[in-house]
Hints:
There is one protein chain. The chain has a single domain (4-42), classed as 434 Repressor (Amino-terminal Domain) (Orthogonal Bundle), CATH 1.10.260.40. It has helices spanning 4-24, 29-36. By secondary structure, it is mostly helical.
Amino acid sequence: MISNESVATLTEELGERLKQARLNQDLTQAELAKRVGVTRKMV
């Protein structure tokens, strides 16, 4: 079973990877959210 600490670490790493991918495409959070059909807060 995966620990809460592991989940937190994975979540943080995923967030950083998504941020870097977004920045590499010169997208704001709002622009990315619009493209994928979610709110900016979800991004």
